[in-house]
Specification:
Keywords: Membrane, Signal, Transmembrane, Transmembrane helix. Helices cover 18% and strands 31% of the residues. It is of the alpha+beta class. The protein has a domain of 118 residues: Jelly Rolls. The chain has a six-stranded mixed β-sheet with strand order 2-1-3-8-5-6. Helix 1 runs antiparallel to helix 4.
Length: 292
């Protein structure tokens, strides 16, 4: 019975760890002139075998070594492939969470992220540190047409010098002094996409500092026609960042065989493990009974 218990424990451990999210850490220190990453390496491993529901998470921790508040921003560039064919980026969902406020500051498909110009993720005060988690998940409903597909991009991350002004909401009052009410709003897409784009793509749920800024508006609204001029400090994390999407047709193994045939649920790993391990449990039990 001891042997059977060990086998069952082995199955349970594998099932628990099979659904875990792969994660890595990147630390970035920025001043008014440059950003310096403390470690190098690929943001995502290009050799990873992606399948529906698979996720990878990377945490970027940024420190403002300067003496003034800075806008934190990001953008994708060096994007490949750039064709209009079936792109796996349309079934890869990107979610970015600002950890200091536990708030989603970006949510879109990777394809929509590619269309976006420089976007503000928040404001960081002097001497302050904050972290942003980038999680990319392959949509559970992705079909066989994405087999063998891949996508690649570089991520530019750092401080912006945006052409931006607050858009206050004025509250009518008899007093000659207006009351300014902070208005949350999205950083929007590139102006070339404004007529056809979904206005909710890449919506920032609230741009705020990690501390209380006395006398300053903590939440700003950015007009859709505003394009950010340049980075004053930036880093690439790292170059290139690659995502291998889909299942290679010539990669014949248990995972690739199962991936798209049973898409839409999360039961494939237990089933797959059961097929291989159940016979061992069965014959172990028979052997145990015969010994008695």
């Amino acid at each position: 019975m001891k042997k059977i218990t060990s086998l069952l424990l082995f199955v349970i451990i594998i099932i628990i760890f099979a659904g875990s999210v792969n994660a890595s850490e990147f630390d970035v220190k920025c001043d008014e002139r440059k950003c310096t990453p403390s470690n190098a390496g690929k943001f995502f491993d290009k050799e990873v075998l992606w399948y529906p529901t698979y996720s990878e998470m990377n945490r970027v921790t940024i420190t403002n070594k300067g003496d003034v508040d800075q806008f934190i921003g990001h953008r994708a560039f060096n994007i490949a492939p750039s064709s209009n064919q079936v792109e796996i980026s349309e079934v890869l969902d990107l979610v970015i969470i600002r950890e200091s406020v536990s708030k989603v500051v970006w949510k879109s498909t990777l394809k929509d992220f590619y269309k976006t110009d420089e976007a503000v993720l928040g404001v960081l005060g002097p001497g302050k540190t904050d972290s942003f988690t980038y999680t990319i998940t392959m949509n559970k409903d992705a079909g066989n047409q994405y087999q063998g597909k891949s996508t690649q991009f570089d991520l530019m991350f750092g401080f912006f010098m945006p052409t931006v002004t607050p858009t206050p909401t004025l509250t009518p009052t008899p007093s000659p002094i207006s009351t300014i009410t902070p208005t949350p709003g999205p950083t929007t897409l590139n102006s070339r996409d404004l007529e056809t784009s979904d206005k909710t793509v890449g919506e920032v749920q609230g741009v705020s500092d990690t501390r209380k800024m006395g006398g300053l508006i903590e939440t700003l609204k950015f007009n859709s026609i505003e394009i950010y001029e340049k980075f004053i400090a930036m880093t690439r994390l790292p170059t290139p960042i690659r995502i291998s999407g889909g299942i290679q047709n010539d990669n014949i193994d248990a995972v690739s065989q199962y991936t798209y045939s049973d898409r839409g649920n999360n039961y494939f790993l237990p089933i797959l493990l059961g097929v291989f391990i159940a016979p061992w449990i069965f014959f172990g039990y028979i052997k145990f009974r015969l010994k008695k």
